[in-house]
Amino acid sequence: MELTTSTSTSTSANTTPAAARRRNAARDADGMAVASFVLGLVGLLALNVVLGPLSVVLASAALLRGTTRRGRAFLGLGLGVADLLVLLAFMSADNTLSWSF
Predict the structure, then answer these.
(1) pTM for the structure as a whole
(2) Which of the 8 DSSP states describes residue 44?
(3) Which DSSP category does 64 fall into?
(4) Residue 49 phi, psi (nearest 5)
(5) Rounded Cα distance, 62 and 74, in Å
(6) Alpha-carbon span 58 to 31, nearest angstrom
């Protein structure tokens, strides 16, 4: 009986790391979705030349990894694109490569 117990313990121990990896991957994707949203929101006010593309990349990665926070990832994607559009609007308004208040 002890042999059976040790075999079942080793079998369950082998499946636990795989499940833990999936949980960590899902948590990472959720974190990327939230980070994308926050960076996109902050990027509307400052450093949109850096934060806009970063928000787009993080949102895309989160969506590809199957985040459970798809709404936040899509918001981050939209805000990242809006960051770049705001940058283009201000750049065309004063004919420079950057914008200031």
Answers:
(1) 0.73
(2) T
(3) H
(4) -70, -25
(5) 10
(6) 9
Nearest by Cα to 74 from 38, 41, 43, 37: 37
Strand locations in the chain (E):
none
Cα gap 98→83, rounded to integer Å: 13
Look at residue 4 and tell me whether its pLDDT is greater than 70: no
pLDDT given for residue 6 in this prediction:
46
Give the span between the Cα atoms of 96 and 28, in whole angstroms: 38
Q: How far is CA 41 from CA 3, 36, 45, in A?
A: 58, 8, 8
| 53 token code pair | 């593309």
Rounded distance, CA 29 to CA 59, Å?
Answer: 9
- Read off the pLDDT of residues 42-68 as tens digits, 9 standing for 90 and up: 999 888 889 999 999 999 999 999 889
Query: Are residues 7 and 46 in contact, defined by beta-carbon separation less than 8 angstroms?
Result: no
Distance CA 99, CA 87 (A): 7
